[in-house]
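Hi everyone, sorry if this is the wrong subforum. Our group has a chain we'd like a structural model of before ordering constructs, and none of us has done structure prediction before. Sequence below.
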Amino acid sequence: MFKNILVANRGEIALRVIRAAKELGVRTTAVYSEADIDSMHVQLADDAICIGPAKSAESYLNMQAILSAAEIANVDAIHPGYGFLSENPHFAELCGSCNVKFIGPSAEVISLMGDKNQARATATKYGVPVTPGSAGIVQTEEEAVRIAEEIGYPVMIKATAGGGGRGMRPALNKASFVSAFHAARAEAQACFGCPDVYIERLVQNPHHVEFQVVADSHGNVKELGERDCSMQRRNQKIIEETPSPLLSPELRRRMAEATEKLVKNIGYENCGTIEYLVDDQENFYFMEMNTRIQVEHPITEEVRGCDLIKEQIRIAAGAPLSEHVVDSVPRGHSIECRINAEDPYNGFAPSPGKINLFYAPGGRGVRVDTHVYSGYEVPPHYDSMIAKLIVTAATREIAIARMLRSLREFVIRGIKTTIPFQVSILENSAFRNGDYNIGWVQTFLDSRPGPPELPHFMAED
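Answer:
Right subforum, don't worry. Here is the predicted structure as tokens:
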């Protein structure tokens, strides 16, 4: 087992890794930007090293600064969390050259599956269904128009690099295609430093379903079921649940088999996620692979009774999959709400600032993963997520009721959050009946529902 792990991230995921490492008896070193000096992950790590100014490019994306910190702290492994450098093959390679274990898959596999165009080709090679699309990167407007007409509208233009919904543009017809093509390329260049895009047919009103996998260096691969991530706004997830209310047992079996086959054939190690689009006719299509831990991993942990971060660390240290993970079966239903510092009734505008009062809900089946507290100043420089609220119960109906109770118990004063909006969603009959898809949230927003009535103690100061 490792002696000292550097956590190359911030916020709740950094704290999540630190806690898992502590339970394994491993020392931890946090890195932080000048804006994060008061973050909880800095306080709870055994050591903490400042790596630069608030700007991500000068701190959490600064490979030289992070590796220098690793040398100073004499660590033997680095956990990248999610986002930032977690899917950067060059960083994984640099870790190896510095004799520091990168807790994740190899640089070669990250490169293979991180490029969405190559990932589609790899999925096709191993028999995993993909949507009809371009054979490779589309460079020119003329080529793009020709391919879109061959595929047939509507189409989706997607960046080959990155994620988080950036570099993606739908086009319903030829009239909107050209502007969408150039907008996707421009956003891809701005966000990922690479303008390359490909084109695929747009699946109408699908569910976004992902399968969690975990694989070790001994040839063991285990899929741990699916998560339904269809509750999205601007291609970014806000509520996730497992199991999916859409999947039949037969469809779940077919998707699980396809997932395990793909992961085995690419020689994958560590935790990863295969993401699919699923239509109403039970057709599923490979979308991408995330070669890292996902934000929504806790709901899988809750229904499977395992700790995926501990498993990541154990696998990276050369251990085989834990028996309780290999033998796990799903029990109950789990839902996660991402609590963001945003104003959902003002275009989801960011709402950084000081949290005057933070009171997290509790009780049976309730889990809160967060790095913030009363008096914490939410910085404006990073992703707006400040907490994850996870509830688990015997049935979906009970889980929804428990989530509503917990959201109404959650008190965050001083800033705006997405909590009122998530209450509105869970109260809606379409969500309660499982009758939703990735376009549902936008339709719900267009209906302009006002904030729900909340308990008096949740009122703003």
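For your construct planning: The domain at 4-103 is CATH 3.40.50.20 (Rossmann fold). The chain has a mean pLDDT of 94.
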